[in-house]
Amino acid sequence: MFQQKRQREQTQNRTKGVRAMRFCVCSRPCFDSRRLFPPPAGYSPVLFREGAREMSVNVLLLTDQSDPDVVLPTLPLVAETVVHAPLGKPSPQQFDGPDVAVVDARTDLPAARQACRKITVAAPQLAVVAVVSPEDFVAVDLEWHVDDVVLPTACTAELQTRLRLAIARRHKAVEDTLQFGDLVLHPASYIASLADRELDLTLTEFKLLSFLVQHAGRAFTRTRLMHEVWGHECGRRTVDVHVQRLRAKLGAEHESIVDTVRGVGYMAPSPPRQVTPQIGLAHRPALR
Q1: Among 28, 177, 237, 266, whose Cα sits 20 to 30 Å from the Cα of 127?
Q2: Segment 15-67, tens digit of pLDDT
Q3: Burial of 186 (0-12, 13-18, 19+ CB in 10 A)
Q4: Taking the domains of the chain in order of start, what are their residue ranges?
Q5: Which CATH number among 1.10.10.10, 3.40.50.1000, 4.10.910.10, 1.10.510.10 corresponds to the domain 179-267?
């Protein structure tokens, strides 16, 4: 009698547990749970579910693979559209429509890394996700300038989440992006580009340039710059050396972005229009 009652309770608990589970958005068993909970009627795999809000996603897949579907098998189940492009030479026109660029980094890490960096400069509004093999997962660092990484074996639920978060991160980064004439600064990734050309700046040089651009029209003493950029006093000559190197990287045509104010220090001149963030635009006309 007691055993029969206990068996009934266990059966009821298991039934309640299954009913309480959220359905899996995969069309095949997840690699994590190894279980398949079929989605309810009317479910569309091309829609992200964010509470009551739904959104579609358009993907640009960069790969040299002859069969693009092997790069990320679950991608067609998530994306509304998938446009393929070669890893080394994507067309600039292909950056306008997609919400996210998925870069195949399974075989050629250097080429994939270079492609990710180029996308961030050419299309700052486009989220970047790298597909990396398990053994190369730790090779991806901040120098890649990607919003997320994913394994080729990612199930649909994981891929949906990673793409959604990558797009959200990119939108936040774009809101913080500054444009000063032909100069574009990305504080979130510490990338600076000038006339669609990436500048090879050190962290200190980027901080110095970013601080002056954010306060364009104001002159700052070397002592003030030490505290704002370096965080401590490091000698007046240190500021001058960094300014010289920064001007050399900007080039003769744009070195006036870091102007000298005699008897005071340095400043970025006031542009005709106020420095503004780039919001959702791949290319904004230069402020002249």
Answers
A1: 28
A2: 444 343 334 444 444 444 333 344 444 444 444 444 334 457 999 999 998 88
A3: buried
A4: 58-176, 179-267
A5: 1.10.10.10
